[in-house]
């Protein structure tokens, strides 16, 4: 049975890699930004102003936590807000006006998609468990505003499950079309598109499309892979008059398509009914559509890209009317670009037909977006722009040219690089007042970036600046260099301090791996081989006329690493078993000792009270662990990483056991009386003390075998037999390579030496400190006082074990250790402790070929029979106890006790 | 006191407690707010898994008589939850395991897998002990599983056992014993569903399923007797209505339409939501040729279907196992299917127009179009025949408007069709012979070609209707223009037969009625005839004569068009046209002109 707190420690251990990754990514980011600045500076000196002009400006606005469960998403939200999620369970709200994060919404599950409703100021967020609907204004007004928050004005909101509006599991994409709310989810065999009323979330209908399984990459990705989000957009026909003026401006995820193409793609019915059409680009490569307002319509496949669809959008290639897209663009993950447009009928008089132009761009496409005539897409390592109008207009002009298609493909194949890396999601492009195109991107690490493209890239190179402006621009550039230098020096100092932290972190990691490896690889590693370990010394002390037991824990660092600032030694003490009165709860006490530096070879000694006399129940387990707090590593920078304050690494060291033998207060024969009387002074119940002292004296007098006659009450006893040969081998072998005073022992007095060994030293790193009055045992009988005040008697005597068998009569000497006390708890505890000691003895014993000599065969059989009988008895009483039939509790306890005693008596010989 | 605190509670008692708590939670949630089954699913799943865990614990010890009763009760609860979630094989496995444990306890050898024999053995081996009711409950569940998985044959075989169970349980022999114990209900394990309710439900559902099966196999009279006895059983109204409905269907099959109508009426009286009865009676009126009643029926059916769908207030105890779960046979669901509200509305409109109630028909058509354009309409699926495509509906509505003397509205509708289709019309359309159409080309191309032909015909028909409108307004010039546009559009079509080159189709190529080619030729004939008549009005007699002759060549028999009933444009016959023309057009024309053209009629 592993105590729960130990379990918790191991759990915190497993989050270690995650936290460390976060720290490192944080550090690396700042280091990167420094290097990019220095790079820019050097570029500037090499290429002058021309190099600066061609680059686009990237401005990092905010950083979110990056997650891995879903593709990130960034969207323009209500007013000037931007929503973004990075695949974790958080949605960030960024205000472009104030240029800062205004809110963090935390959902119970990882967020897969989000959509905002403009008129009602609602935000719909799809999580694994369903779709949540949050009214942002309401939430923000309700958020607690503490003075600390007021300065940063960042509201962290936990969204409870009351906001769950659609309890559909595994929703990957959501879309809002008028009063209809759509969800797209994936089952094992199909895609499910479900329509809900957005007023009351009543399900309207549901459509399914079978999953195409044989798509590229699908089998290599396991369940752990990032779930790809299908693309979901709504297409309106341009001659469909918008029902209300608010919808005249298209919201995110809605595009207006030129009517001829609309009719060609989606049919006359959809056009006549003025129905919006839902277009889905699925991760299995299908591009399918559903007319929303047509009876009996179903999901139909428009085209298959044969690779996961990453982006679907509409582009105004040749501008005819205001803002009516003439071309649908779909982009696959592996770089396939499909343009869908109207083809004017050829010579054979085919009328208008749908034209599909396919092309391929290099690289995996992570995300994309379109504006009037450009497609922007990110491969992860670069952001590229593809001019769609080039390919299409050429096609338009040279109608019958055979080379057209080839040229189109060539145009599609030559995108222009924008030199922005690690973009994972893009929102729709916007134009600022200066006519520059601005993109809103989300980097792989969760940074929200605004990317401003250089205005009129091609024209700029051709036009010459007027000479009057040159002087001014030089001045500007010089001041810009000054700025950059200043920034670089600040960042350099930052690098220095971060290097320091990294070095520190390296030490921490070394120690962590050292301890984790030793903890996981060999559970039964002998104590000496643990890299960093604790051992303990117990001692009784007397303070304020009260006896109390202290444990001195010594932390040893033989490893080559320094335990630096930030480490804490934590010691948890809890009983191995607990009395029933505790109500089944183990009471554990934690002590923690922070320390500064512990160099290799140094030790740290701490002392802690185990228990006052008569309070604790033994044996106690003392589990030691080292805790490292990450917050201390970063210092004041820790404030930048929310959630880090509470995170720390906990590494378990070893576990010590303080058992009954450790806590015995041995009475030397002379001191017995004195101690008993002195104790009677300080105990409140004098009568009881008197009785106890009487009893001790009685037994003391009857020493030598007569105590059974003078027993004032029932004595409990248990015994263990160990072969003397084994003891001789182990104890004497041990003594020979230990200190000298043990060698004085006469070899025949094995019993005495066993007792002395048991009392002086213990397995598992705990020793008993007897504070000077080193007991020199005169006889093989020891009287002692347990922690609960009961006297116990330990006897070790050599006996002959008779082995009766038909063939040969053989006798073997053994040492019988007998434990006697009037308290059953004491007997149990001591028996347990003695057994533990003998176990370690056995582990230590040298291997012997035929030590058992086939003895005990008869005895074994008898014992086995007896054990079987006892087992039956136990089972019977347990079953009857479980069903509450038959015997009463008292009876059952009695029968179990007798079984227990029978087990403890008549032990087997341990050889 | 303290002794009592530390005394370990009896396991039996604890398990009973756990079971009862779960049952209460199960019922509480189910009985509380009226949740749809979908929303209740997670809760049910949770209950089921909790019951499973409990059962695992109980089955950890060897079967003993003392607590086998508890075990069987828990098995009943688990299986009921599993069945309610349609996990039949899982439930069946649990049942088998439980009965095997019963046999193990009584010491009987496991028996053959033949269900009737098996259950008989189990019941006999238990004898008349306290376990008997528990085993019977399990048999009930087995019955439910058989019914849900449509294994009616096995039910037939086990009929004796099942009826004996029914009798024993319905007489309530053990009920006294249980009610006695009910006072200290913490000591007896509870059930998630009263077995008596369950068995009542099972009985009537079995009869309904069997009736539907026999009916679909044509053994109507056999089914009828069973269904009629079932109609007096205690059961939810819906199920009683089903028995009446099926009886009606049996009678209809046995050609007793009046008696069938009586049964349908009873079904409706029992359960007003039984739309199927309404639909079936409408079909019978149609069969009998009672148009008025049919239209009335359609109207009622439509208004019933438009009512907000009210969830049926289920009986407290049958909530877990709904009748729809037990009645899943194909034959029954096909008997119960009803077309969608839109389809009914379209039918209603068409019927009205065909039977002289044009103004009503127009209103229905306008309703239909309004529904199709409303934002609340979201492609709801429904069984039954799909609606015609939207342009066709527009044209039908336009024709109805024309008949109702609203030419302006008709023209607006036709305009819509024309503007939508015109941009997409190719220079040439090839009509292929239907037999070999799909052999040479791929299906997709074929569908696209079809689409183009359909578009051509829609645009042509729309022009024709506009021409008619202008004729009605006596704007002959405009009429000529529109008829000409129609004709010009139609000549774009070429006909391709076999491996020959596409050619201009002529009347002698029309093989079958109703094909695209036939319609094309008819439209040609009608547009030419219309133009001819318009020319006569403007006294361009030479042109008139030419057009009328051409019309005769295009489609012999269509000499004239009809002004009153163009909605039947696609199923006009020469005879009806002639009659219509004589009755209407010539009636209102000046006398001399009427005389002039009488020779054309015959």
From TrEMBL, chain A:
SUPFAM superfamilies found in the cross-reference section: Tricorn protease domain 2
Q: Which GO terms describe its biological process?
A: interstrand cross-link repair
Q: Which domain of life is it from?
A: Eukaryota
Alphabetized InterPro entries for the sequence:
Faap100
Q: Which GO terms describe its cellular component?
A: Fanconi anaemia nuclear complex; nucleoplasm
Classification via Pfam families: FANCAA (PF15146)
Q: What is this protein called?
A: FA core complex associated protein 100
Organism annotation = Sander lucioperca
Read off the lineage from the record. Eukaryota, Metazoa, Chordata, Craniata, Vertebrata
């Amino acid at each position: 049975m592993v105590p729960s707190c130990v379990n918790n420690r191991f759990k915190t251990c497993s989050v270690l890699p995650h936290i460390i990754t976060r720290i490192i990514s944080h550090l690396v980011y700042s280091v990167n930004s420094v290097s990019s600045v220095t790079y820019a500076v050097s570029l500037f000196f090499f290429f002058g102003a021309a190099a600066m002009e061609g680059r686009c400006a990237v401005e990092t606005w905010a950083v979110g936590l990056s997650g891995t469960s879903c593709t990130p998403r960034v969207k323009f939200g209500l007013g000037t807000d931007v929503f973004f999620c990075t695949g974790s369970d958080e949605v960030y709200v960024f205000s472009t006006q104030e240029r800062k994060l205004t809110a963090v919404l935390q959902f119970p599950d990882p967020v897969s998609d989000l959509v905002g409703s403009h008129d009602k100021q609602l935000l719909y967020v799809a999580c694994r468990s369903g779709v949540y609907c949050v009214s942002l204004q309401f939430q923000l007004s309700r958020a607690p505003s503490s003075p600390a928050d007021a300065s940063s004005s960042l509201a962290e909101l936990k969204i409870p499950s009351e906001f769950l509006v659609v309890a559909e599991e595994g929703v990957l994409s959501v879309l809002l079309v008028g009063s209809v709310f759509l969800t797209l989810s994936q089952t094992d065999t199909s895609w499910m598109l479900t329509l809900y009323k957005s007023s009351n979330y009543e399900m309207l209908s549901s459509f399914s499309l079978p999953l195409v399984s044989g798509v590229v990459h699908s089998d290599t990705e396991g369940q752990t892979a990032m779930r790809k989000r299908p693309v979901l957009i709504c297409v309106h026909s341009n001659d469909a008059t918008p029902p209300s003026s608010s919808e005249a401006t298209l919201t995110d995820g809605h595009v207006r398509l030129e009517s001829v193409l609309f009719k060609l793609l989606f049919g006359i019915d959809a056009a006549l009914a003025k129905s919006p059409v839902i277009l889905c680009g699925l991760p299995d490569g299908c591009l399918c559509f559903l007319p929303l307002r047509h009876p009996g319509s179903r999901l139909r496949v428009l085209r298959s890209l044969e690779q996961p669809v990453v982006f679907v959008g509409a582009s105004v290639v040749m501008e005819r009317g205001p803002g009516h897209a003439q071309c649908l663009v779909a982009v696959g993950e592996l770089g396939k670009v499909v343009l869908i447009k109207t083809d004017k009928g050829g010579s054979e008089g085919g009328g208008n037909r749908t034209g599909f132009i396919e092309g391929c761009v290099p690289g995996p496409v992570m995300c994309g977006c379109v504006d009037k005539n450009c497609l922007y897409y990110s491969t992860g390592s670069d952001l590229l722009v593809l001019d769609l109008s080039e390919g299409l207009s050429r096609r338009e002009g040279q109608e019958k040219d055979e080379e057209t298609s080839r040229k189109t493909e060539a145009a599609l194949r030559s995108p222009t690089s924008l030199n922005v890396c690690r973009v994972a999601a893009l929102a729709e492009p916007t134009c600022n007042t200066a006519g520059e195109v601005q993109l809103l991107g989300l980097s792989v690490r969760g940074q929200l970036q605004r990317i401003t493209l250089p205005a009129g890239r091609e024209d700029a190179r051709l036009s010459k600046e007027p000479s009057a402006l040159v002087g001014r621009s030089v001045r500007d550039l010089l001041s810009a260099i000054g700025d950059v230098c200043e920034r670089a020096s600040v960042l350099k100092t930052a690098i220095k301090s971060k290097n320091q932290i990294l070095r520190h972190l390296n030490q921490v990691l070394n120690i962590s791996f050292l301890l984790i490896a030793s903890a996981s690889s060999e559970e039964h590693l002998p104590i000496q081989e643990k890299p960093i370990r604790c051992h303990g010394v117990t001692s009784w002390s007397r303070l304020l006329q009260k006896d109390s037991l202290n444990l001195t824990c010594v932390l040893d660092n033989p490893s080559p690493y320094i335990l630096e600032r930030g480490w804490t030694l934590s010691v948890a003490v809890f009983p191995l078993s607990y009395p029933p009165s505790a109500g089944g709860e183990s009471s554990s006490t934690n002590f923690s000792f922070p320390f500064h530096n512990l160099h290799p070879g140094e030790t740290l000694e701490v002392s802690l009270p185990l228990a006052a006399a008569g309070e604790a129940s033994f044996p106690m387990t003392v589990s030691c662990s080292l805790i490292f707090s990450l917050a201390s590593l970063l210092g004041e920078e820790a404030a930048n990483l929310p959630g880090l304050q509470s995170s720390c690494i906990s590494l378990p060291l070893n576990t010590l056991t303080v058992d009954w033998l450790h806590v015995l207060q041995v009475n030397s024969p002379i001191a017995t009386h004195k101690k008993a009387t002195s104790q009677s002074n300080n105990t409140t119940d004098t009568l009881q003390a008197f009785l106890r002292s009487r009893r001790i004296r009685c037994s003391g007098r009857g020493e030598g075998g007569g105590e059974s006659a003078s027993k004032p009450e029932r004595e409990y006893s248990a015994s263990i037999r160990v072969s003397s040969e084994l003891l001789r081998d182990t104890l004497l072998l041990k003594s020979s390579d230990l200190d000298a005073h043990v060698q004085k022992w006469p070899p025949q007095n094995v019993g005495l030496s066993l007792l002395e060994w048991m009392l002086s030293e213990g397995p598992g790193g705990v020793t008993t400190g007897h504070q000077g009055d080193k007991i020199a045992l005169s006889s093989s009988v020891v009287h002692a006082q347990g922690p609960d005040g009961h006297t116990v008697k330990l006897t070790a005597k050599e006996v002959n074990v008779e082995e009766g068998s038909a063939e040969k009569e053989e006798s073997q000497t053994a040492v019988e250790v007998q434990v006697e006390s009037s308290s059953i708890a004491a007997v149990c505890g001591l028996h347990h402790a003695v057994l533990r000691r003998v176990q370690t003895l056995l582990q230590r014993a040298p291997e012997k070929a035929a030590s058992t000599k086939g003895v005990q065969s008869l005895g074994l059989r008898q014992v086995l029979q007896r054990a079987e009988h006892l087992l039956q008895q136990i089972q019977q009483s347990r079953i009857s106890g479980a069903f509450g039939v038959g015997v009463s509790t008292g009876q059952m306890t009695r029968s179990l006790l007798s079984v227990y005693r029978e087990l403890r008596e008549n032990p087997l010989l341990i050889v | 006191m303290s002794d009592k605190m530390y005394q370990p509670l009896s396991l039996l008692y604890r398990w009973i407690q756990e079971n009862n708590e779960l049952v209460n939670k199960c019922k509480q949630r189910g009985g509380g707010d009226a949740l749809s089954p979908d929303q209740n699913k997670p809760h049910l799943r949770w209950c089921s898994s909790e019951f499973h865990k409990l059962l695992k614990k109980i089955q950890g010890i060897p079967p003993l008589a003392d607590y086998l009763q508890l075990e069987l009760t828990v098995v009943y609860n688990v299986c009921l939850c599993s069945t309610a979630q349609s996990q039949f094989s899982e439930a069946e496995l649990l049942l088998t395991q439980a009965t095997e444990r019963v046999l193990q306890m009584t010491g009987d050898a496991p028996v053959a897998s033949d269900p009737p024999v098996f259950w008989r053995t189990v019941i006999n081996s238990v004898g008349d002990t306290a376990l008997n009711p528990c085993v019977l409950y399990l048999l009930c569940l087995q019955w439910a599983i058989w019914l849900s998985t449509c294994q009616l044959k096995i039910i037939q075989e086990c009929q004796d056992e099942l009826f004996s169970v029914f009798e024993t349980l319905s007489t309530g022999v053990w009920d006294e014993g249980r009610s006695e114990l009910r006072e200290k209900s913490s000591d007896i394990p509870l059930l998630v569903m009263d077995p008596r309710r369950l068995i009542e439900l099972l009985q009537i559902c079995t009869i309904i399923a069997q009736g539907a099966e026999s009916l679909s196999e044509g053994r109507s009279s056999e089914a009828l007797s069973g269904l009629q006895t079932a109609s007096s059983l205690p059961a939810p109204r819906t199920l009683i209505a089903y028995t009446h409905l099926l009886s009606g269907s049996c009678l209809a099959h046995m050609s007793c339409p009046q008696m069938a109508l009586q049964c349908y009426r009873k079904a409706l009286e029992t359960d007003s939501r039984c739309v199927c009865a309404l639909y079936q009676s409408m079909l019978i009126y149609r069969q009998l040729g009672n148009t008025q009643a049919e239209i009335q029926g359609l109207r009622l059916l439509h208004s019933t279907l438009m009512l907000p769908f009210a969830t049926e207030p289920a009986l407290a105890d049958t909530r877990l196992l709904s009748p729809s779960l037990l009645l899943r046979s194909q034959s029954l669901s096909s008997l119960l299917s009803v077309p969608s509200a839109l389809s009914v509305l379209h039918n209603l409109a068409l019927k009205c127009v065909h039977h002289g109630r044009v103004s009503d028909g127009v209103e229905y058509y306008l309703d239909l179009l309004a529904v199709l354009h409303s934002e609340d309409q979201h492609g709801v699926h429904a069984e039954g025949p799909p609606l015609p495509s939207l342009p066709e509906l527009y044209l039908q509505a336009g024709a109805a408007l024309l008949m109702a003397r609203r030419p302006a509205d008709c023209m607006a509708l036709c305009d819509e069709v024309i503007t939508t289709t015109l941009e997409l019309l190719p220079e040439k359309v090839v009509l292929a012979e239907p037999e070999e159409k799909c052999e040479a080309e791929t299906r997709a191309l074929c569908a696209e070609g079809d689409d183009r032909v359909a578009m051509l015909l829609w645009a042509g028909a729309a022009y024709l209707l506009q021409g008619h409108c202008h004729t009605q307004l006596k704007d002959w010039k405009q009429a000529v223009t529109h008829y000409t546009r129609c004709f010009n559009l139609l000549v774009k079509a070429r006909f391709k037969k076999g491996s020959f080159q596409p050619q201009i189709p002529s009347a002698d190529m029309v093989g079958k009625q109703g094909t695209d080619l036939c319609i094309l030729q008819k439209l040609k004939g009608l547009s030419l005839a219309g133009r001819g008549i318009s020319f006569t009005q403007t006294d361009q007699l030479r042109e008139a004569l030419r057009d009328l002759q051409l019309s005769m060549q295009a489609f012999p028999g269509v000499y004239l068009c009809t002004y009153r009933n163009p909605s039947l444009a696609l199923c006009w016959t020469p005879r009806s046209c002639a009659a219509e023309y004589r009755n209407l057009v010539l009636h209102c024309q000046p006398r001399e002109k009427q005389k002039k053209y009488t020779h054309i009629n015959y």
